[in-house]
Amino acid sequence: MRSPRSTPPFRLPRPSGPDRSSRPVLFGGPRRLAALLLCAAAALFPTAPPAAAAAPPPVPGTLQGYDIGSVFSAGVSSGGYMATQLHVAYSGTFEGSAAFASGPYDCARGQLATALNACMDTIQNLQLATLEQATRDRSAQGQIDPVENLAGDPVYVFSGSGDSTVKRPVADALADHYGRFGARVQYNRSTAAGHAWITPLGPNSCTVTQTPFLNNCGIDAEGQLLGHLFGPVAAPGSGTGGSLIRFDQNTYAPGGSAAALSMGAEGFAYVPASCAQGSRCKLLVALHGCKQGYAYQGFGTRFVEGAYLNEYADTNDMIVLYPQAAPTTTLENPNGCWNWWGYLGDTAYARHGGKQIEAIMGMVRALRGSGTPPPTSGRTVLSSTDAEDGYVKAAADGSGAAVGTLEDLSGLALGRGTDGKVNRSVVSFDTSKIPAGKEITRAWLTVSRSSGSGDPWASPTGNRLQADLRTGCFGACAVEPADWSAAATVAGAARIDAFSSGSAVSTDLSAEALVALNRGGVTQFRLGFTTAPTGTAYLFVNRDAPVTLTVEYR
Hints:
It comes from Streptomyces zaomyceticus. This is PHB depolymerase family esterase. InterPro entries: AB_hydrolase_fold, Esterase_phb, Plant_Biomass_Hydrol_Est. Keywords: Hydrolase, Signal. The protein is an alpha/beta fold and about 550 residues long. About 20% of the residues lie in helices and about 25% in strands. The protein starts with about 30 loop residues before the first helix and ends with a strand.
């Protein structure tokens, strides 16, 4: 094995010989594969970053039950893979995920060579369509929660251009894989970050890949990822307003031995004062990368203190659980990576029954209160009423409005057509089907592209496709010319970002829009661009299937 001077710390040797895709990797392969996965993150514009990490000293304790309403995962590199595994395998529990410097769900398929050559490098094709089908098959067989749960879930993906450990096309595939299940993906690929967790507290410069793998890129990545997962977040606090609990992970390890799973004896949880005092809180499971675990060569709590999550926990009613992987004394996992390729013979590592997954799920259940079920919640997917859907076209000033006639042939029109008219579409939902007596917590629209021409989002630059909401109908519930300019109950209730194929999920409906949903009858949405495209630029949506409105409630 080369010295650290000549070999980047996360670069893994590849099998050599005529069949290097299947030939076993011996000394150094698992060792550096472990090193493989550390991390990254990125993106919000910075507030004034603190000068140094601050955290209360760990205190021995146990995981107690708190009032937790929602659960999310986040991780870097090997921790990014594990964060995705948790989210996909237990999508009934996890409502979203952030994954940095990693690839799609079960990319390795239990093979170290595939992990090395397809899920870090691009020597092998990672076969995204095959991964998608395998995920759907597992869902159908009950090995993971229903993949339908992923639709609309917020997912944050990060890849730095300076990361040569997990290459950009692998992270692209992660975003693509989630998109195939209807997740709302926000993908940050705007920095030159190396393979590292990006934090204002990082001692390293942005582009390097070296211990402690905490890089400062002059951005607040944590603010961006939490904002995408939760919605708007409050500015961070000091990160010292709560308790950092050190607990025994053996309690949650299947078989009672964390070491047997390549996990450490000790894990950590940051509990802000508000959560300890009974506030309804969120739970974020934060997973370090290789060589960042507490038990790895004295690394200690540097990730726990430097990840810039405790600061947001203090001001946003968020508990942060920091499970800990640990190195093995053998060559299986010497750098303390999370299990995303099936080491130690765990063939269920990415699904229900995976040993590390079940250990972490045990911690999550303990924090939600042993024996106390989470708040009753549910999800209803409503299809638009075809007889009440349609589109209206008019001049840019709204004059000369008329009902469009190509819905059956092409779908619902949006943007400026070849006739110079600007199209807006109206879709109608029977929202009385939302269960009575339930509090609506989230809702979003899903549309599917049928055809189009040009890019109306770029005509002019920054144009927005928004959904206006009307409690009841804009006019008569059948589409009529006046619908083009009729007043909305909530203008800009949601937006749909640019997409060129397949389906797109809107942003969550605003709080005002949730209140405006008509629990006693019809709610209509009018889709249209905020500015008339400057030239011919349009799309047709939902020719063969209705628009859907997904509503979550408790």
